[in-house]
Amino acid sequence: MEYRNVLVDTSVIIDFLRKANKKSTYLWNIMSTDSKILISSVTVFELYSGAITENHIEDLKTIMAWFEVIPLSDKIARRSATIYKILRARNQIIEFRDIFIGATAIELLTPLATLNKKHFERIDSINIIN
After folding, report:
1. Which site among 42, 59, 75, 120 is 20 to 30 Å from 97 CA-CA?
2. Tell me, what CATH number does 50's domain have?
3. Range of the domain at 15
4. Sequence-separated (6 or more) residues with CB below 8 Å from residue 22
5. Tens-digit pLDDT string for the chain (130 aa)
């Protein structure tokens, strides 16, 4: 199924960067559609904080032009806090970064493309695609 917009999780981008055969990646499949690819500013943080070499940083600079970066707004932060409280009450906490990314998808009413379905499926009202 093709979507107008897709929020892409960090795991999908890392998979693309690591694999030699780019055409076999989830990100390549998304890019071959007409969907606009969105990423959270949290994903930008995760990618750049994990970039160890200058080559990694240059690779990131190149692919960042492919995405629209969604900033962390007050609305997304409030939604994240609500999600955190729900997950804490259920004793199903996930990483804060994943909570922020999930809240971004919910606030934008946009499906989330991730290779980390196990964590994100704990968040109510999120539309995970794969």
Report:
1. 59
2. 3.40.50.1010
3. 5-125
4. 16, 28
5. 678 999 999 999 999 999 999 999 999 999 999 999 999 999 999 999 999 889 989 999 999 999 999 999 999 999 999 999 999 999 999 999 999 999 999 999 999 999 999 999 999 999 999 7
